[in-house]
Amino acid sequence: MSLFRLAVAVACFACLVLAANTLAQDESSIEGVWVNGDGDGWIELEIVGSELIGRILGSPADPFNRNPSRLDNQNPQESLRDRPLRGLTILSGFRNEGDGRWGGGRVYDPNSGNTYKGTITVVDDVTLKLRGFIGISLFGRTEVWVRRGEN
Questions:
Q1: Whole-model pTM?
Q2: Domain-wise residue ranges, the chain
Q3: What is the pLDDT of residues 19-74, one digit of tens each?
Q4: What kind of fold does domain 31-147 have according to CATH?
Q5: Three-class SS string for the chain?
């Protein structure tokens, strides 16, 4: 193999490693604790396998988690209304679509008991947009979430 071909091969390999590292950094940059659009919940986002999920961690109104007894009392399934909100998974099934976009997910709103389709767009390191909708994205609502500690 000529020196030129070897240099090209090494350069291509370096580009692939850099691209894979950048994708991994982009994916993990969404992980952490976020304040929801209403400002009343801390949601922990975590990548599990290839899926992004979000769980209720607590509330700015109760920063020391002194009232863990708030329940999922708006759930349409009566048998689930006695489960605590803390630790409840409200975002599931989101897949990385590249360029800071996550799609194909489901959003559960414990304030209404409704579940929506959803997309997430990472705006920057401290801001994301969560869109919940019924059917098509046109019929929905977007919330801006900020990373906890940045508001």
A1: 0.78
A2: 31-147
A3: 443 344 456 799 999 999 999 899 999 999 999 999 999 988 776 666 667 899 99
A4: Lipocalin (2.40.128)
A5: CCHHHHHHHHHHHHHHHHHHHHHHHHHHCCCEEEECCCCCCEEEEEEECCEEEEEEEEECCECCCCCCCCECCCCCCHHHCCCECCCCEEEEEEEEEECCEEEEEEEEECCCCEEEEEEEEEEECCEEEEEEECCCCCCEEEEEEEECCCC
